[in-house]
Write a structure and sequence with these properties.
428 residues, alpha/beta, Structural Genomics Hypothetical 15.5 Kd Protein In mrcA-pckA Intergenic Region, Chain A, 3 domains, six-stranded mixed beta sheet, elongated
Length: 428
């Protein structure tokens, strides 16, 4: 496929500035950029959608500049907010930048290594564009070319100005000038002709193009990608309730796997085409097979496997599937646990919110209460009488039972309440 055809088939085009950019970037050897906000010390799945959109453009031999907002992060974007964000300390901001750099580099190098795809990229920090620039020079270089009338016409700014309950600071207004200067700097110093980003930022992207035209009388381009939303209309994987972090310390591979296992059927096609390196034809086969019997969740399994594999590697996929088999599968759970290695055991323990106990033996009522599956020993006794409590998949029928180290399998004890509530106990 041509670049234009592939991006259309993958749903990676929302708007673009000029048809010429497709011919230009289809030939390769061109440069483009995307940017990242270092407001946190980890990227989110939302960010990785944009990275994959960039990879699909790099496949054609184009180089991507991954720009981290070391300067812009000191001001922040006022879009979509009714008040000003709290500033991060410079120390915290630099720490976040480094974390994002490390995540991006690890991810990109793993893609190149594991999928035999060669592409060129470079990491840049817009703090380097501004740290030696004097304020008056900035006004002359950028402020002179953009009118206040133009800036306040932006919807998010207009709301903050016209609503008597809100206001906007000069610092927040300056954010726009910084973002526009990014494109100009990358264009003039590195030959970057295209900015790639989400459709809700089109206004800022096109203004960067305008600054280049006004200062240099040269043409630059932009292309936006559609925003993927969930059933509620929120940006998929970004809202406060469903943000998914790329950092293993924040969200484990199993957590990410289950997040995509719960994806709506209508999103499987969109997510696979953005987030996988499979061909469009291969994805269509997956979706067709899923449609034959959606209850089997074949599409979600393929999607979850792919995302975890590109983020964390094939071993992480295997571990996520093992834990899923324990918590949701129809397999012999204790036989599976007996086969687990130490890392798998530790991951299962963490995912169930398991605890470590210092004892040689314990009454079964105390144990279920201690791990939080029952609210009290009296509650535990009632649930035993109802046949709701299990140890190592064996129903507990004796409230006086004593649990000892002899009951442990592969160093752990599997407790279950009802069908789906599990806890894993380890001896400290």
């Amino acid at each position: 496929m041509t670049l234009r055809e592939e991006r259309e088939n993958r749903g990676l085009i929302n708007q673009f500035s000029d048809e010429k950019l497709f011919d230009l970037y289809n030939k390769g050897w061109e440069k483009f950029y995307i940017w990242f906000d270092p407001s946190a010390d980890s990227l989110q799945i939302w960010n990785m959608f944009a990275v994959m959109a960039a990879i699909h453009l790099m496949k054609y031999g184009n180089k991507c500049y991954f720009l981290v907002w070391g300067a812009t992060g000191m001001i922040w974007d006022p879009s979509g907010r009714s008040d000003e964000r709290n500033f991060l300390t410079e120390e915290k901001l630099r720490h976040n930048e480094q974390c994002i750099y490390n995540q991006l580099k690890t991810f990109l190098e793993n893609i190149k290594k594991n999928y035999d795809i060669d592409f060129d990229y470079e990491m840049v920090d817009n703090y380097d564009f501004f740290k030696w620039m004097e304020y008056l020079n900035f006004l002359r270089e950028v402020g002179k070319y953009i009118t206040v009338n133009y800036m306040i016409a932006k919807e998010s700014i207009k709301k903050r100005i016209t609503d008597p309950e809100q206001s906007i600071t000069y610092a927040e207004m300056s954010y726009m000038l910084i973002q526009w200067f990014d494109f100009f700097t990358l264009f003039s110093k590195h030959g970057v002709k295209l900015q790639l980003w989400w459709s809700d930022q089109r206004w800022n992207v096109t203004t960067g193009m305008e600054l280049i035209w006004k200062k240099l009388w040269e043409e630059a381009y932009c292309m936006t990608i559609p925003i993927i939303t969930d059933a509620s209309g929120a940006k998929y994987g970004k809202s406060a309730g469903n943000a998914v972090w790329v950092d293993k310390a924040k969200n484990s591979p199993y957590f990410v796997y289950q997040f995509f296992m719960n994806a709506e059927d209508s999103l499987i096609w969109k997510l696979l085409k953005v987030f996988s390196l499979k061909s469009v034809e291969e994805i269509d086969v997956i979706v067709a097979k899923h449609t034959e019997n959606p209850a089997l969740r074949y599409g979600q399994k393929e999607l979850a496997r792919w995302v975890v594999e590109v983020l964390f590697g094939k071993d992480a996929v295997m571990q996520a599937e093992k834990i899923s088999d324990i918590l949701f599968g129809e397999w012999d759970r204790m036989k599976l646990i007996a086969w687990f290695d130490k890392d798998d055991i530790d991951a299962l323990h963490a995912e169930t919110g398991g605890i470590e106990l210092k004892w040689s033996e314990m009454k079964v009522l105390d144990m279920f209460t201690e791990v939080g599956l029952t609210s009290s020993n009296g509650d535990a006794k009632k649930l035993i009488q109802s046949g709701w409590l299990f140890i190592n998949e064996a129903k507990v029928d004796n409230p006086q039972m004593i649990v000892s180290k002899d009951n442990f399998v592969n160093g752990v004890l599997l407790l279950r309440k009802g069908k789906k509530q599990f806890k894993v106990v380890k001896i400290a």
